[in-house]
Amino acid sequence: MTFATTPLHRLLKRLGDGRGSRVLGAGLCVVLLSACSLSPDYQRPVLATPLQFKHAEGWTQARPADHVQRGHWWELYDDAQLNQLVDTLNRSNQTVAQYEAQYRQATALVRSSRGALFPSLDLSVGKTRSSQGTGSSSSSLSNNSSGIRNTYNAQLGVSWEVDLWGKLRETLNANQASAEASIAELASIRLSLQSELVQNYLQLRVIDAQKRLLEATVAAYQRSLRMTENQYRAGISGPDAVAQARTQLHTTEADLIDLAWQRAQYENAIAVLLGRAPADFALAPSTAIPALPSVPMQLPSQLLERRPDIAAAERRVMAANANIGVARAAYFPDLSLSMSGGYSSSSYSNWIELPNRFWSVGPSLAMTLFDAGRRSAEVDRTVAVYDQTAAQYRQTVLDGFREVENYLVQLRVYGDEAVVRQQALDAARQSLRLTENQYKAGLIGYLDVVNVQATALSNERSVLNLLQGRLLASVQLIAALGGGWDQTQADADRQALEPR
């Protein structure tokens, strides 16, 4: 039996004749009705935005022709290995994967709410087998002496909820805003993790530099110890000088050993950020520290557009605003249009025949007349949620300005301090050379050398620690400015996550 001769095919053909088309067309004409919206007109929450950052004097203003590739802000540090690590994080980090899945859920909800705006078409085909007692009351129902009856049913139905008050449309708007917030949250968490990775990498490289410094210092102290021991054997210096030289050497060796676990901690943190077990990951030591980049600045108004967490906060306000309209629509009746038709017969052979046809069509109006204040309470709740999200948005913006101001002044102060620290280091190095020459000439005791050596080493490490602080502050400032994220990057993220 081919499909063209089946009862299902005949059902579809009968429902597609002229009369069925006229009934279906009359029902769908209601689509032309314009749904009204009960949500307040959305406006971005009012917030006083400064014209410029207080501590931005001397910084380079960002321009659209910025040579840095949009989104790849870590390339400012000009480190190929760092670039590879960040690329791996973007692909393999499990927290990013969680937020990507969360965004896919949000987009699926948008598609579902968009589908609610259109009619739904249902088809049911079935067979039922029933039995009834053989008493006199059932004898007229069936000529079958056993009382068993077969019923074949085929029904095609169309139903549609007319969105007169904008409830479905506002639900769609709320879900779309939530999806936009979700993609911005994804960008925000990715930026945060990228910042964490870059900071861990930079601190690890500074530890590599400290390790090289302490190794060179240990070698120098070993030479000083041998020289002091030779002088002691020659009767030039006493045993106290030898003890001081050994104390200084072993203390520095202990500091060198201590760096091992600090480096391991940063290495393990990087491994987890890359979605790998620490046992399966290692970073070879490097002989260079990434240079401190020149960070381009943004205007305060641009900060609101470039920070993904601020964008996410505003999208949540938009969703809350739309939900007010959904709650208000509950006061009004729901209008649904439905139409169904089909065939029902006790015999399969003449199932799809004109005498066995049935149909129904008509509107349905449903409205809650009394609910003891539940609808009013729901409206009040959605308004309160809107006020909450608006306050959260304002606070997010204020926190953004605070972070930028903090990192700006931190970098400026660190820059001034770096000049003085370098001058102190140069003076300490010169003092150490003079003191060592005087000790070799027998003009001073070894205690004087020890003190100068300790001062020089302290200054060396202070300069490295200050460089580390400046590098970390630069990363934090870039993240506080939104990295390279903007609406263009958001569109690229959205396209990359769309189902294929």
From TrEMBL:
<keyword id="KW-0812">Transmembrane</keyword>
<keyword id="KW-0472">Membrane</keyword>
<comment type="similarity">
    <text>Belongs to the outer membrane factor (OMF) (TC 1.B.17) family.</text>
</comment>
<dbReference type="Pfam" id="PF02321">
    <property type="entry name" value="OEP"/>
</dbReference>
<keyword id="KW-1134">Transmembrane beta strand</keyword>
<feature type="compositionally biased region" description="Low complexity">
    <location>
        <begin position="130"/>
        <end position="146"/>
    </location>
</feature>
<dbReference type="InterPro" id="IPR010131">
    <property type="entry name" value="MdtP/NodT-like"/>
</dbReference>
<feature type="region of interest" description="Disordered">
    <location>
        <begin position="125"/>
        <end position="146"/>
    </location>
</feature>
<keyword id="KW-0175">Coiled coil</keyword>
<feature type="coiled-coil region">
    <location>
        <begin position="82"/>
        <end position="109"/>
    </location>
</feature>
<keyword id="KW-0998">Cell outer membrane</keyword>
<keyword id="KW-0449">Lipoprotein</keyword>
<dbReference type="GO" id="GO:0015562">
    <property type="term" value="F:efflux transmembrane transporter activity"/>
</dbReference>
<dbReference type="InterPro" id="IPR003423">
    <property type="entry name" value="OMP_efflux"/>
</dbReference>
<protein>
    <submittedName>
        <fullName>RND transporter</fullName>
    </submittedName>
</protein>
<keyword id="KW-0564">Palmitate</keyword>
<dbReference type="GO" id="GO:0009279">
    <property type="term" value="C:cell outer membrane"/>
</dbReference>
